[in-house]
Specification:
With 563 residues, the protein is of the alpha+beta class. The chain has a domain of 238 residues: TolB, C-terminal domain (Neuraminidase, 6 Propeller). The chain is built from eight helices and 27 strands. Strand 17 and strand 18 form a beta hairpin. Helix 3 packs antiparallel against helix 4. It is elongated, with a radius of gyration of 39 Å.
Amino acid sequence: MATASELSSMKGQIVVRAKGHDKCPSHRDNQVVFLCQDCNILICPSCSITTHKAHFDSFIEISKTTQQNKNRIRDFINSTENLDIPKLKEEIKTAKEHHSTYKPKYKNIRDTIKEYRDIARKVIDEITENHLAFCDEMELVDTELLQTHITNLERRLDNLVTLSLECKETLQRGNGVLVYDSATEIQNTDLEIPQRPNIRTEFTPCKDRRNHLKEAMGVIQARTDHQAASAAGGPSNQGPLVRNKQSSEMDQLSTGTVQYKLCDRPTVVSVFSYRAGNPLICPTPVGRAWLCDYNTSTLNLINNKGEVLQEIQHNNNITDISLDPITGCLWFCCFEERTVNEVSTSSTPVRRFTTQYYPHKLSVTSEGRVVVGTGGRQGYKVVIYTTGGQVLHTVIVERSELGGVLSITQCPVTGNIAIVSKKLIDGEYSDPNNFRRHVIVYNPTLQPLIHYRGEGIQAREAVTPDKFGPIRVVYDSKGNIVISDWKRKTIELITGDGKYIKTLHTNKGQQGEVGIQSDDVLWSHLELDTGKWGLKLLEYYSDRGSRTWVMSQFKSMDFIELV
């Protein structure tokens, strides 16, 4: 018996015999008389002692197979003529009937879609006209109110100026009676400035208009059994046009409605020891991370096993680090010298600008902006700068209260900015338990949207604001917010609009800083079960397909690796 490789080699050398031709293609003067069952081809006597001699036991005379083959052919004819051909003709007839109905069917669908589009446009136009008419009406009312207020103020001003001049003259030349009358007139004069009319007309655009418009238009439901067609012999790659994964993922990201599946418990990707302290963690898109112990001057790039790949020394202590999501360059801020710096491609820190207030935290946004959080005894704020140091937006988080910003992160889906704010409630400021912490979400121009204080967290006892202790927040690729809670030793996951999703991890020991890769691998600094401090890399989404797509987007960018 020949081996598979021998048969393959032999078949590659066989000359094809024409259908019904009884001459051997290899020995043209000989008739084929045997069937080589090993090779399933007809051969002549010369073949049987040469190329097929090893298959001697599988030879059978053609005449002995004729009756069996005739029976097989008769069965095929009977089955085909009585069953398969009539069934196929009927299916063709039915398919043609359906085919003739699909053109008007889809025309009707298109006409209905256009009709509802026109209805939606008409409704939007009506709503728009009503809004504009209301604005015109309110503008007249508000303008009249303000003009009346201004007229009253001007009249009061004239009266006060006149009364003041009269009083001066009375003091110089008036008798006792006039002095009495003037003093009485002053006593009866209303010196309070009238309150300005409270005008509160505002317009709040819909934040979920795409979904609302889709709901208004209706839903197209399509069902095509192309898998069944493939099983029946049809081409499996010629089904109906469907949206590919990337376009679907982009649409979900643009609307903030990314679907995801959470693991029952996070999968540990890697775990290794790392010294205690409070390291700032800034993962790169390629499975590495920049680390810097808080208020030290050394930056370390490590891999996911804890091996140091690069070390950069600065001349001042660093209070926070951030990775530019577009260029991949590392940025950091220094509290004492009030500077914001960038690590260029030469691995040399370059000072980009100096801040007016002492920077505690920073985050570089996808728009090429630098968001800086400050702290101090006279209040603290968040400021958005250009990379050259020009102030674009500012918001005061707390005024005249000791505290600061502990963390800043930008959402890759909405562009919103989340921070951790801490404010001294009472007692000694050196005791961290005397500070109250919460998460604030701002829009890209620093208008406050959400204040989150642990609402909805499912725990054995209610999570009140005094028991909620966030120290770091990071957005993941789905637009959800990961919160590291040092008080409760947990890592929490909430939606971008402040709704509790799940407690991802509860640690036996202390819980420290976290950082997140662009493909949603979470880096967590915590006290390990051994009692030593280390880093755990966790995956908490089970749908890795989305992870792969997001990763491919980052890999398509020109990231700078500082190694």
